[in-house]
Amino acid sequence: MAEKSAGQRRRTRSDWAAAALRALAEGGVAAVAVEPVAASLGATKGSVYWHFPNREALLTAALELWETEHTEAVIELLEPIAEPLAKLRTLFSAVLEDTDNRVLLALLASAEDPVVAPVLGRVTERRIGYLATLFGELGWTPTQSRRRAVLAYAAYVGQAQLMRSSPKMLPANKVGRRAYLDDALHALGVPPASKG
Amino acid sequence: MAEKSAGQRRRTRSDWAAAALRALAEGGVAAVAVEPVAASLGATKGSVYWHFPNREALLTAALELWETEHTEAVIELLEPIAEPLAKLRTLFSAVLEDTDNRVLLALLASAEDPVVAPVLGRVTERRIGYLATLFGELGWTPTQSRRRAVLAYAAYVGQAQLMRSSPKMLPANKVGRRAYLDDALHALGVPPASKG
DNA sequence: ACACCTCCGTACGGTCCCGTATGGAACTGA
DNA sequence: TCAGTTCCATACGGGACCGTACGGAGGTGT
User: Fold this and answer.
1) Looking at the 3D structure of chain A, how many domains does it have?
2) Beta-carbon neighbour count of residue B38 at 10 Å?
3) Could you tell me which residues form the DNA-binding region (chains A, B) (predicted)?
4) Predicted local distance difference test score (pLDDT) of residue A196
5) Do the chains contact at B144 and A183, CB–CB below 8 Å?
6) Which residues of chain B are within 8 Å of residue A164 when distances are taken between CB atoms?
7) What percent of chain A is predicted at pLDDT more than 70?
């Protein structure tokens, strides 16, 4: 067995960005600290400070990585789906199932951070804009679509928070989640999917 | 002019709890640190450590203060209103106007913190429960009321997040907020208020 | 084999915070 | 007024992290 994370000889900038993103997901922005991240790769600060001028640059690299690979992931997930209605359904069900929100929650927790703020702003804007186009394809006026999109994304974000802080408030089993999802989509003006 | 925050001679435990809560609102859980809070009252650590055994106790005191005075505030705000519909409207409009969410956002940002978690859990549970009763009074079944309450609170929380991270996404003027609020309430199954 | 550049470990000083120890000021009551 | 209690400032040691300095090991080309 070749050594993987430990004992590795040389690391690239991408390795550090990935490690920083991992730390971000697990411990929040504060966990993206030079020494702990270095230790997570079995290295020391000397290595980090060769690839990055300072801690902020390391954090920025992690955020860039997340922003790009995450938008790609969403596109790849929804692109093959034709119906905007099915897209919305898939999108919303992801919140109830997925655990990917870790990074998003970490960023929301540090929304004031000057390094985080612009990234969070761009992602939020992009997502709401995308939701608005979906609602537009469903026949809503631009103004209505916009409002629905903001409301839907607010519910999305709040949902992610509740999953972490008060999971007991949410439906536990699959049937309950399905019913909750149907109800939420219906409330937002999206009729339930025809069974089949 | 009598000295107020500076030059004060003796502080009580309540003074420290209030100062800690202030720090929590302004800088998050991390800002509830012994030395900075002491400095905010023109004192030193020595005083803090006389009233509290450690930092955690100071944070707990701040959270207790918030939990009690905040639930009182909500009760005082909604108690005089008779109609459950008007209560909901008042409740939701508070998010779009108020800036009180600072503490809530700080707590959500540190939801994993073992000191924060139980407080956040209790408050969340209480609020959703209260929302559910309101929806119940509007004629929804218990199951539907529960789902609507969770959805409404998720939207509430997400809304608070958006106000901080992406205020540009939300309606800026009063008219826009009113329209957005109407739309949101309507989506949740609450008909718009009759004008007058 | 040699110099060279890339990458990294170690050591150091600095900041901010926690928590403890201790002496002394400020108030209290008799 | 004076002893006792309450409250607080100062000083100290420890830990986590940042950033810098520097030397040395690892690869690379010739």
Assistant:
1) 2
2) 20
3) 33-52
4) 34
5) yes
6) 111-112
7) 92
A134 in the same domain as A61: no
Alpha-carbon gap, residue A193 to B12, rounded angstroms: 60
Regarding whether B32 and B89 lie in a shared domain, the answer is no
Q: Is residue A75 in some structural domain?
A: no
Indicate if B109 and B180 belong to the same structural domain.
Answer: yes
**Mean pLDDT, range A130-146, rounded to an integer:** 95
Residue of A nearest to B120 (CA): A165
Q: Which of B99, B151, B163 is most worth mutating to test chain A (most A CB atoms within 10 A of its CB)? A: B151
Out of A66, A92, A111, a domain closes at A66
Q: Specify whether B102 is located in the same domain as B177.
A: yes
Mean pLDDT of chain A: 91
Whole-angstrom distance, CA of residue A93 vs CA of residue A77 = 12
List all nucleotides in chain C with at least one atom under 7 A from a protein Cβ.
7-11, 16-23, 26-27
Structural domain contains residue B5: no
Residue A189 and residue B187: Cβ atoms within 8 Å? yes
Domain of residue A26 covers 11-66
Q: Are residues B87 and B41 in the same domain?
A: no
CA of A106 to C1' of C16 (A): 23
Whether A37 and A25 have beta carbons less than 8 Å apart is answered as no
What confidence score (pLDDT) does residue B2 get?
A: 29
- B89 and B186 in a single domain? The answer is yes
**CB atoms inside a 10 Å sphere around CB B100:** 13
A117 to chain B, closest Cα gap in Å: 7
> Same structural domain for residues B168 and B122?
yes
3-class secondary structure for A140-185? CCHHHHHHHHHHHHHHHHHHHHHHHHCHHHCCCCHHHHHHHHHHHH
**What are all long-range contacts of A93-100, with beta carbons under 8 Å and residues at least 24 apart?**
A93/A181, A95/A156, A95/A159, A95/A160, A95/A163, A96/A159, A96/A163, A96/A170, A96/A177, A96/A180, A96/A181, A97/A177
Same domain, B116 and B179: yes
